[in-house]
Design a protein that fits this description.
- The chain is of the alpha+beta class.
- The protein folds into five domains: about 190 residues, Orthogonal Bundle (Hypothetical protein af1432), CATH 1.10.3210.10; about 140 residues, Beta Polymerase, domain 2, CATH 3.30.460.10; about 70 residues, Beta-grasp domain (Ubiquitin-like (UB roll)), CATH 3.10.20; about 150 residues, no CATH class; about 80 residues, Alpha-Beta Plaits (2-Layer Sandwich).
- The strands form six sheets. Strands 1-2-5-4-3 form a five-stranded mixed β-sheet. A four-stranded mixed β-sheet has the order 13-15-14-16. It has a four-stranded antiparallel β-sheet with strand order 18-19-17-20, covered by helices on one side.
- α1 packs parallel to α3.
- The longest helix is centred in the C-terminal third of the chain and has 33 residues.
Length: about 725
């Protein structure tokens, strides 16, 4: 009972109306249900949830949260039932415990899948009540404090530490619980990179000896100048954690000796006016470091954090960070959202509406709805959580937090999913900017939308937020599947026609179970993607049919391709194509409108378009079923420009390369890539990729280049 008494002793310090009987009831319930269970350390299992409750009691949490912590493993690891907990305590308590519990029955067999499914459930539960996350964080913190008992299982300790650093430490930071975030990260660092942590520990010890209590000197100095200015302040100082030091070394690519601000000091005053007064006093006494001032009081962080940060040159020329805040700000900086549930003067300070206004949580839930694969969901939530932030403004002045490297597309999705999907352009600080522009702190961003716009697959290359990436991937999957279905159906029909069978959906539906798919469209999609052969599906439908194997005639592959184009079948109509989806263009020949083309079914890519004379086609001579008749469409979705590749040799004279680009520009072309293949004193050989409309446009550019004096030869590149 000593653990219970220790817990109640802490709770009595802040709760004047503490119901000790309900806490004791929860303690006895957990002890009974966990009877016979042991931790790896050999301790009785029930001691763990009580220690978790103590962590939350130190944060001054309400009684409901404390009893949930005491019983948080009972529904998952004991015979206790939801109905039993509801009857003995309350539905609120049972719901919270259920939210904290892991998902025990999941389909995925991979660790990443299990991890993602557990995180899904945690997100859903904490969206209803943030106390679920508070208990989960305290649970993880105590597990990390005792992880050393698994020292003979380095694989297990590394996995748990990695998960803690990737998910739980960022979550603690997002809800503003700085003290838990720092301890979780530092404990994880001990298992992920113990050598680096030990090295930093030794260097810090050496600095302490060399510095002769430099921290104490700085504290005294700050206290003196505050007192002389009539400001009542409490000054504290500390070294930054080993993990935060290591992270800064990695981010700035510097050595330990090159770091200047490994110490942080806090000046805690009575009110906001004194915060700015104290700032003026500090700046008047010590030289400041330019570019290292941040005012999170006038512009708080999205997690509610408020403070003034400045970096000064202190005693002995040490760079030190000084944080100035009020007592209330200091409390909220340590407890974050937990401060909303903590006791203050014997009363709870709770506003559930505030707790549901965390944009990052809404965006994580949005990712949850978009993602289909657990591993994709987990990866995108890590992207959303674990990045440094930039703060930008909407045209109305709303502050939006984004990860570093975020672009106008990320901003658009942060505003609303529909805004992101329909984004066609953006203005940064009033000027039109490319959609891949990296935003910086203080930018004002305006998004231009169009009802006819859809997400572009190209966006996936530069967006950094999980929400943007999940929406783009979802659209790609939808478009890709529809393209694959249409393509696969046409390919299967061609085999039916060739073998003189009538094509019916009913006949295809008959092999759905045999091919281990859910529906007929899955068969078409697999054929279109190249995972199933259309002929193999035909054989599955008509197993007794013996088809004569058709091979390409020996000799010129071009004759075979032309014969395929001259038969009675019409070219496959492929409209609304998206580059990189069901149809893409081979880079070996760079087909252009006006070229005669052929499609080759490629596994995982759908149809690859080649020019009819492409040398690569010879490798497909023995698989005629993979050849598809295609032609250029002229619909509204036909791209306005295509890449044509040129081989150019020109004289190495001043302005020679400039003349090449000038001629191309005047002819309406746009250079998108250039590669120097040979360079000598007299001549340069280059490969040039140019955006053109069609073969005629490219021919005009070639003619103009050939008429230029410095150019000795120019031809369309083939097979490079």
């Amino acid at each position: 009972m000593q653990l219970l008494e220790d817990l109640l002793k802490i709770m009595r310090t802040y709760s004047q109306d503490l119901d000790e009987k309900i806490v004791e009831k929860a303690y006895l319930f957990a002890k009974e249900k966990h009877a016979g269970q042991k931790r790896v350390s050999g301790e009785e299992y029930y001691t763990h949830p009580v220690e978790v409750a103590m962590i939350l009691a130190d944060m001054r949490m309400d009684t409901t949260t404390i009893i949930v912590a005491i019983m948080h493993d009972t529904l998952e690891d004991t015979s206790a039932t939801y109905e039993e907990v509801t009857e003995l305590f309350s539905k609120e308590v049972a719901d919270l415990i259920n939210g904290v519990s892991k998902l025990t029955k999941i389909e995925s067999q991979t660790f990443e899948g299990k991890q993602a499914e557990n995180f899904r459930k945690l997100l859903l539960a904490m969206s209803e009540d943030i106390r679920v996350l508070l208990v989960k964080l305290a649970d993880r913190l105590h597990n990390m404090r005792t992880l050393f008992h698994f020292k003979d299982r380095p694989d297990k300790t590394f996995r748990i530490a990695r998960e803690t650093l990737d998910i739980y430490a960022p979550l603690a930071e997002r809800i503003g619980i700085h003290q838990i975030k720092e301890e979780l990260a530092d404990l994880s660092f001990n298992y992920i990179n113990p050598e680096a942590r030990e090295s930093i520990t030794k260097r810090l010890s050496f600095l302490r000896k060399e510095g002769n209590d430099i921290i104490e000197k700085i504290i005294i100095g700050l206290e003196v100048i505050m007192k002389d200015s009539g400001i009542e302040a409490t000054v504290t100082g500390r070294e930054k954690t080993r993990y935060s030091i290591w992270k800064k070394m990695q981010r700035k690519n510097v050595t330990f000796e090159q770091l200047s601000d490994i110490m942080a000091f806090r000046v805690v005053v009575e009110n906001i006016e004194e915060c700015y007064h104290a700032l003026g006093v500090v700046h008047s006494k010590y030289p400041t470091v330019p570019g290292r001032f941040k005012d999170f009081i006038s512009t708080p962080k999205p997690n509610g954090y408020r403070s003034i940060h400045t970096t000064i040159i202190g005693p002995e020329s040490q760079r030190i960070e000084v944080q100035i805040r009020t007592k209330e700000m200091h409390r909220e900086a340590d407890l974050g959202v937990a401060a909303h549930w903590a006791y203050k003067d014997g009363k709870k300070k709770v506003d559930k509406r505030d707790l549901k206004n965390y944009r990052w949580l809404r965006e994580l839930l949005d990712i949850l709805e978009q993602e289909q694969r657990p591993e994709d969901f987990l990866e995108n939530t890590k992207l959303e959580l674990f990045q440094e932030q930039v703060f930008v403004f909407s045209p109305k002045g709303d502050l939006i937090e984004l990860p570093q490297g975020a672009t106008p597309v990320d901003f658009a999705y942060a505003v609303h999913s529909d805004v992101g999907d329909k984004c066609v352009g953006g203005k940064v600080n009033g000027r039109i900017a490319p959609l891949n522009t990296k935003l910086v702190n203080g930018d004002q961003v305006e998004i231009i939308t169009s009802k006819s716009q859809n997400p572009s697959p190209a966006w996936e290359r530069f967006v950094v937020t999980g929400k943007a990436r999940s929406h783009i991937k979802r659209y790609i999957r939808q478009q890709q599947r529809s393209e694959y279905i249409a393509l696969g159906q046409v390919m299967l029909k061609k085999v039916f026609q060739k073998e003189e069978y009538d094509f019916t959906e009913k006949s295809v539906a008959g092999v759905v179970k045999q091919l281990r798919v859910d529906e007929v469209d899955d068969i078409y999609a697999n054929i279109g993607a190249g995972h199933f052969s259309a002929r193999d599906v035909f054989k599955a439908i008509f197993p007794s049919h013996r088809a004569e194997v058709v091979k390409a005639p020996s000799g010129d592959i071009k004759d075979y391709a032309m014969a395929r184009r001259s038969d009675s079948d019409k070219p496959i109509p492929i409209k609304g194509l998206i580059p990189g989806m069901a149809v893409h263009f081979a880079r070996c020949c760079h087909a252009l409108p006006g070229d005669r083309i052929v499609g080759i079914v490629t596994t995982g890519k759908g149809v690859t378009i080649h020019t009819i004379d492409c040398e690569t086609l010879e490798t497909f001579a023995d698989t005629p079923e993979r050849w598809i008749d295609v032609s250029w469409g002229d619909g509204p979705d036909t791209p306005e420009s295509h890449v044509g590749r040129l081989e150019i040799t020109f004289m190495n004279t001043p302005g020679g390369l400039g003349n090449v680009s000038t001629v191309i520009g005047k002819s309406g072309g746009n250079i998108v890539n250039l590669k120097i293949t040979n360079r000598s004193l007299d001549f340069w050989d280059i490969l040039l990729d140019v955006y053109v409309k069609d073969t005629k446009h490219l021919s005009n550019i070639i003619a103009a280049l050939r008429a230029t004096a410095e150019i000795t030869s120019v031809d369309r590149a083939k097979g490079r």
